[in-house]
Design brief:
With about 325 residues, this protein is α/β, with parallel strands linked by helices. The chain has helices spanning about 30-50, 60-70, 80-105, 140-150, 180-185, 215-225, 260-265, 275-290, 300-305; strands at about 5-15, 50-55, 110-115, 120, 135-140, 155, 165, 175, 190, 200-205, 205-210, 230-235, 240-245, 250-255, 255-260, 295, 310-315.
C-alpha cells in the first residue's frame, strides 16, 4: 500500500445530501446516503493525509425548528442555537459512525472524532436586520403563505426551487474550538466539526451565550481551512459542477477557472444568493488567504474532481493544478 500523503484537505458536505430527495419528512435514517460520501472521505484520508469534515444542516435545522413550533403547546421550544447544536451532534454522529465502518472494512486504522463546535459572531452584525439564510424543506408559494400566517416565519423563494424559511446569518468571527481541532488533526485523526456553520455564540464579558441564527457553513469551512493551513478545500453539494447561465438554454459548466474569473462571474451576478453564491464567495476567500485549490462537485464525484476529471476546480491565476496521487479510476 502506498504511504499517506501529507496534504491537508477540508471537505464541506452539504446537508441536502444527507436527506432523502423529494421529501419534506426529513427522514434521518440516512446511512445509505452518507455511505457514498464516506467512501470518498475514507479514500482521501488514506492517500492524501489529514482530512477535516464539515457539514451543512439547513434542512435538518429547519425540521428541528418546525418540530419546536408544532410541539410548543406541550413542550417548551429550544433556542435556535440549541437546534443547531442538536443537528450538529446527530449529523456528526452519523458521519462518524458510517466513516468508521468504511475504514474498519478496509482494515485502515484512522480514528474519527466528531466535535461540537461554537463559532463567535458579532452581536451587532447587520445580518440580524435582514434574515437571508434558507433553512428547512421547500414549500410551494401557497404552503409558504400559510406557514407565514401560522408561525410568523419569514419565507422567501430560493433560487427557483421553492419557498423556504429564512433566518439571520451573521459572519463567523472565530472558531472557539480551533486549537482542539488542530490538535486532533496533528494527532492523525479525521475530525468532523463546525457542523451547520457552528453554533452561533456571542461573548458577554467572560461568558459565551448562544444566539438565534444560523451561520453559513461554507464561510465557516473556508475560515477553518485557512486557519488550519489546508491546501485544498472541497465543497460537496447537490450539483456535479458550477454553471454560468444556470437553468437557461445557454447554461455552461465551469470545469476549470481562476480566482479572478470567479470574481468576475460574481460581479456579473451569475450565482444565486441562496445556493451557489455563498460557496463561490467562500472559495474566493480561502484562495485569497493562502489556499491552493478549491473543488466543487457532488457526492460520488469528489475523487474524480480531486484528480481533475470532474467537477469545478478553482485555482490562482497563472497557476497550474499540481498532479497528485490518483484517487479515482
Amino acid at each position: 500500500m502506498q504511504s499517506r500523503m501529507t496534504s491537508r484537505t477540508v471537505v464541506a458536505v452539504g446537508g441536502n445530501s444527507l436527506i432523502s430527495s423529494g421529501t419534506n419528512n426529513g427522514n434521518l435514517d440516512t446511512h445509505k446516503l452518507a455511505r457514498k460520501v464516506c467512501e470518498e472521505l475514507a479514500t482521501i484520508a488514506q492517500f492524501r493525509g489529514g482530512v477535516v469534515i464539515t457539514h451543512g444542516n439547513g434542512p435538518q435545522v429547519g425540521f428541528e425548528l418546525l418540530r419546536n413550533a408544532l410541539a410548543a403547546s406541550s413542550v417548551p421550544p429550544d433556542g435556535m442555537d440549541v437546534n443547531v447544536a442538536a443537528t450538529q451532534g446527530y449529523i456528526g454522529y452519523l458521519l462518524q459512525q458510517v466513516l468508521g465502518d468504511v475504514l474498519e472494512e478496509r482494515g485502515v486504522d484512522i480514528p474519527v472524532t466528531a466535535l461540537v463546535t461554537q463559532v463567535l459572531v458579532a452581536p451587532d452584525d447587520p445580518a440580524f436586520e435582514n434574515p437571508s439564510k434558507p433553512v428547512g424543506p421547500f414549500y410551494s408559494e401557497e404552503e409558504a403563505s400559510k406557514i407565514n400566517k401560522e408561525f410568523g416565519w419569514i419565507m422567501k423563494e430560493d433560487a427557483g426551487r421553492g419557498w423556504r424559511r429564512v433566518v439571520s446569518s451573521p459572519k463567523p468571527r472565530r472558531i472557539l474550538e480551533l486549537e482542539a481541532i488542530r490538535t486532533l488533526v496533528i494527532a492523525g485523526e479525521i475530525v468532523i466539526c463546525a457542523g451547520g456553520g457552528g453554533i452561533p455564540v456571542v461573548r458577554e464579558g467572560y461568558k459565551v451565550r448562544g444566539i438565534p441564527a444560523v451561520i453559513d457553513k461554507d464561510h465557516v469551512s473556508a475560515l477553518l481551512a485557512t486557519r488550519l493551513e489546508a491546501d485544498t478545500y472541497v465543497i460537496s453539494t447537490a450539483v456535479p459542477e458550477v454553471y454560468v447561465n444556470f437553468g437557461k438554454p445557454n447554461q455552461r459548466a465551469i470545469h476549470n477557472a481562476t480566482l479572478e474569473e470567479m470574481e468576475r462571474f460574481v460581479h456579473q451576478g451569475e450565482f444565486a444568493a441562496g445556493s451557489m453564491l455563498p460557496k463561490i464567495r467562500a472559495s474566493i476567500g480561502f484562495l485569497k488567504h493562502g489556499g491552493e485549490k478549491v473543488v466543487i462537485t457532488s457526492p460520488g464525484n469528489i475523487l474524480k474532481a480531486l484528480d481533475g476529471k470532474a467537477g469545478t476546480t478553482i485555482v490562482h491565476g497563472g497557476v497550474t493544478v499540481q498532479e497528485s496521487m490518483p484517487l479515482s479510476e
